[in-house]
């Protein structure tokens, strides 16, 4: 019962972390690791400027920690460039296994983050070059990758029959 064993391990980890009050310092797995299970979110993200944020920097600027802190904040520590899934949702090491992801509470206990307006403002602040002040509601619409994701989810739910699906 390998799956059950690893579930117990995650549960013990979650419990230990919540008792110690420690934040989860989980490794990043990279956006490709999310793609298999969240293809719609991945495609939408790929169309966004976040997916290419590091490319806006010149070669010299790509070595400048001041620029990287917003354009590619996890490059040095995690080897993952640009503003990626895990920059916003937290490192996926512990939450991305399917059996954890299906349990919304457990996933959050082991590091899944719901990005807040405050998190956006860490980067979209007075020192970013935009002439317009950051508008959270408008900006959220511009990075929407959850609507296609939810459409896919309800389609999956409707197609799910009580009988096990036949292999094609
Ligand atoms: C093995 C498949 C799998 C992988 C890999 C995976 N997920 Fe998930 N994820 C799921 C499932 C299943 C759900 C539950 C909702 C659903 O059915 O779509 C979910 C839910 C989520 C949610 C919504 C949680 C909620 O309760 O609202 C977020 C955010 C998320 N995943 C982000 C990620 C990110 C970021 C990565 C990559 C680091 C990732 N996932 C990798 C399968 C996966
Ligand atoms: C700039 C920050 C940011 C990045 C980058 C990002 N997300 Fe999100 N994501 C959000 C926010 C904010 C929400 C919640 C939006 C809402 O519910 O209004 C969200 C919601 C989701 C959901 C929830 C969908 C549901 O069913 O409720 C999934 C799944 C998800 N993101 C996966 C991903 C994946 C996979 C990537 C990378 C390919 C990614 N996200 C990149 C900020 C981000
Ligand atoms: C780690 C820093 C970081 C975080 C966190 C972040 N962003 Fe960004 N965002 C950027 C950078 C850098 C760019 C510019 C990318 C480029 O073009 O080089 C950008 C670009 C954008 C753009 C496109 C702006 C344009 O002029 O077209 C939108 C919209 C946006 N972000 C929304 C959000 C929202 C909403 C959140 C929070 C859920 C968020 N961002 C969180 C760094 C961040
Ligand atoms: C505090 C976070 C932050 C820092 C630090 C930062 N940027 Fe940005 N940068 C942004 C955001 C956010 C945007 C997107 C435009 C906007 O909404 O302000 C952006 C946009 C840009 C763009 C325009 C990209 C486009 O698509 O048109 C360039 C070029 C750029 N930044 C270069 C730099 C350089 C060079 C540095 C280092 C000297 C730097 N940035 C530091 C947040 C930051």
UniProtKB/TrEMBL annotation:
Transmembrane segments: none annotated. Residues 1-25 form the signal peptide. The keyword Membrane does not apply. Gene3D superfamilies: Flavocytochrome C3, Chain A (1.10.1130.10). Residues 32-89 form the Cytochrome c7-like domain. Residues 145-156 have a biased composition (Basic and acidic residues). It comes from the Bacteria. Keywords: Signal. The keyword Signal applies. Residues 145-168 are annotated as: Disordered. This is Multiheme c-type cytochrome. It comes from Archangium lansingense.
């Amino acid at each position: 019962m390998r799956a059950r064993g690893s579930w117990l391990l995650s549960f013990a980890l979650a419990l230990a972390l919540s008792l110690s009050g420690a934040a989860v310092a989980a490794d990043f797995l990279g956006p490709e690791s999310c793609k298999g299970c969240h293809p719609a979110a991945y495609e939408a993200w790929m169309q966004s400027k976040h997916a290419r944020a590091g490319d806006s920097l010149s070669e010299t600027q790509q070595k400048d920690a001041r620029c990287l802190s917003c354009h590619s904040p996890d490059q040095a520590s995690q080897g993952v460039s640009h503003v990626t899934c895990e920059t916003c949702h937290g490192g996926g090491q512990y939450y991305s296994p399917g059996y954890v992801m299906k349990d919304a509470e457990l996933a959050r206990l082991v590091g899944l983050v719901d990005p807040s307006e405050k998190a956006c403002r860490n980067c979209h602040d007075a020192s970013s070059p935009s002439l317009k002040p950051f508008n959270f509601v408008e900006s959220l619409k511009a990075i929407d990758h959850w609507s296609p994701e939810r459409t896919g989810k309800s389609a999956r739910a409707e197609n799910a029959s009580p009988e096990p699906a036949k292999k094609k």
